[in-house]
Amino acid sequence: MSEAPRLDPGPARLRQIDVYLRGVRGRRPVVPLDLARLERRARRAMSRRGFAYLAGGAGLESTLVENRAAFERQRIVPRMLRDVSARDTSVELFGRRHPSPFLLAPIGVLELAHADADLAAARAAAAERVPMIFSNQASVPMERCAAAMGDSERWFQLYWSTSDELVASFVGRAEACGCSAIVVTLDTTMLGWRIRDLDYGYLPFLLGKGLAQYTSDPVFTAALDQAGDGTAAPGGVTPAAVRALVQLARAYPGSAAANLRSRLPRAAVRRFLEIYSRPSLTWDDLPYLRGLTRLPILLKGILHPDDARLALEHGADGIVVSNHGGRQVDGAIASIDALPPIAAAIGGRIPILLDSGVRGGADAFKALALGASAVLVGRPFAYGLAVAGEAGVREVLRNLAADFELTMGLAGCASVAEIGPSSLAGP
Ligand code: FNR
């Protein structure tokens, strides 16, 4: 009888062994693996308003709940005796290989979770070789994050402003700092009706948070000279309004004392509110963006197969099936339920990415089985950030990668190419 060759156990098993051995020495993971516990820890680490902004969804939050329920309805059917001793979890996107099918979703206003915000996420993403999508509403300018990432993959997410000049400037900056794709988010032409935030009367942008891409932009700042004086809260000067002014002065680049006396921070907020999105956008506007860049363009927020076909017709290089983590249209279809007809419409011609409700390796496996090439992770990484900064994001990413590798192997697939519709029982 011949002996089986000694094989490298692979990163997932090493991670498992590491966690268990630490346990023997009495050490528990700093970042809980259980997501409900992780969320509770993040809530404790954040302000009440900040946590509400991060965790909340639109309306009755039925889509937020449905995103999870729909993943739960899909069941994996494992296969046996298929030699899964070596497991290749890598995926290819736009000609580049990535070690796992996860990307960091663009999440705005990460300063609500941790002072290091996007910079901590960027460092963690680079260390784990996970592509990061810089948010249009980031708390740190894209150039600073890019500089912290070496040659690691980053993309830029664009909200299409009413100012074409600003759109061109953002795209040019993204190219210049090494972003290798542009993700245009289509589902946020207006903010959804977010009840948790409305009950607090809380929109972080009004306090100057999440505006770093704007306040670092030459086109945006040049326009401030002509802009008005900013938002005056109705009801005159109250202690809360004074606190808001101080927060705004702190959030704006430069010295807080000088900012308190300056009209610029308030002018920036007003200008942002005027121009941040363009509800009049149609498919006919896409050639303008195409004319600005040769980078791949992905359309984020696609949920209808007809829109997937239109994306193809209009030359999109990829799509992201997403309901924005349940934050926009309450009652919208779960993205994993929207995926099969969209995958059929796309027919493998361009990559499909998916987000909204991805919480573990099994979710990524299910999305890949139904036709996605990769998945974006949103809130879980922001919770890791809130709990332990850069190290927290790294922990979350490592756990997702390990969970995916084990799920894939235990389901009988040695590589991502072996994951397909027959891997699932379906609802
Ligand atoms: C987001 N999302 C988002 N999307 C985007 O295109 N630009 C952005 O600036 C933001 N900002 C943002 C802030 C917060 C607090 C959240 C929770 C989400 C949506 C995000 O990219 C992604 O679609 C969802 O987060 C995915 O759902 P899960 O993983 O959070 O369930």
Describe this structure in words.
It is built from 18 helices and 10 strands. The protein is α/β, with parallel strands linked by helices and 427 residues long. The strands form 2 sheets. An 8-stranded parallel beta sheet has the order 3-10-9-8-7-6-5-4. A two-stranded antiparallel sheet has the order 1-2. The longest helix has 32 residues, at 379-410. It starts with 9 loop residues before the first helix and ends in a 17-residue tail after the last helix. The mean pLDDT is 96. Bound molecules: ligand FNR. Ligand FNR binds at residues 53-54, 67, 105-108, 135-137, 157, 185, 300, 322, 324-325, 327, 355-358, 376-379.
What is the gist of this entry?
This protein has 427 residues and is α/β, with parallel strands linked by helices. The chain has helices at 10-24, 35-45, 48-55, 62-73, 117-127, 142-147, 164-176, 195-200, 212-215, 218-224, 239-251, 256-261, 264-275, 286-292, 305-313, 335-346, 361-369, 379-410; strands at residues 91-93, 96-98, 102-104, 132-134, 154-158, 182-185, 297-302, 318-321, 352-354, 374-377. Helices cover 45% and strands 9% of the residues.
